[in-house]
Amino acid sequence: MKEAVIAYDNVDICYDGRTVVRQATFSLQPGEILGIVGESGSGKSTLLQSAMNLLGPGGAVTQGHIWFQGQDILALSDEGMQRLCGAQMAMVFQDAAASLCPVRTIGSQICEAAAAHLDMGKEEVRRQTLELFARLGFSDGRRVWESYPFELSGGMNQRAALVLVMLLKPALLLADEPTSALDVCAQKQVLDELLYLRDQYGTAIMLVTHDMGVVSRVADYVLVVKDGQIIEYGPAKDVLASPAQAYTKELLAAVPKLRRDRR
């Protein structure tokens, strides 16, 4: 078996001394997509943030290990994390526009990220980015490159952020609710880009979502979190078809269903 891209080993996470995630244990192989589901406040985003050292003041992993390609993330120095984040492990947030600088163009921000991690000149970065835009169906890639985030829709900002990730070709992408604020068409475009990233580069993806439809479409495995504890974990087709836990059944039952009027 290949070495796991990322593995959580009996991880506890605390904020100001209060445990919010308990004994999290799971792993992800290259090219796999893990859907992490649960109600708001259950600890889903905290799991992602712990891998990127983004827990903030008062937050800390107090037990266990998080292994990334065989190295213990928790033992890395700040410099070690800086080398890791972006080039090998990337994160896309729910509101991509808020994570982008509002007074700089998309192109300049892509160039800055590429300069930090790639040995590539600005013109080559621009060429490869425009090629990605075109391959992903952007009809106006040059306009996106020259635009400021506030000039683009939420869906376009989210897709531009994913193009930046594709340019860096990380081994792991952490995606925190990347489709929740988007309309149906934009959601499909973002999901298509996630699948392209996985299929083209073998990127493993940890995807936090409230949408069980998203999980059923893209996830290979499902991890169900409730009150900071993993209550169910397994292949998506098994968990979605025959959930073992009552809470998972409740999540699936909460998915809206369209009904036809047979009259």
TrEMBL record:
**A Pfam cross-reference name:** ABC_tran
Where does this chain mainly localize? Answer: membrane
- Keyword Heme in the entry? The reply is no
Which segments constitute the ABC transporter domain?
6-252
Question: Which Gene Ontology molecular-function terms are recorded?
Answer: ATP binding; ATP hydrolysis activity
UniProt topology in membrane: Peripheral membrane protein
Q: Which UniProt keywords apply?
A: ATP-binding, Cell membrane, Membrane, Nucleotide-binding, Transport
Q: What cellular component GO annotations does this protein have?
A: plasma membrane
Q: Could you tell me where this protein is found in the cell?
A: Cell membrane
Q: Which family does it belong to?
A: Belongs to the ABC transporter superfamily.
The family database entries (PANTHER family) matched by this protein are listed as: DIPEPTIDE TRANSPORT ATP-BINDING PROTEIN DPPD, OLIGOPEPTIDE TRANSPORT ATP-BINDING PROTEIN APPD
Q: What name does UniProt use for this protein?
A: ABC transporter ATP-binding protein
Q: Which organism is this entry from?
A: Megasphaera stantonii
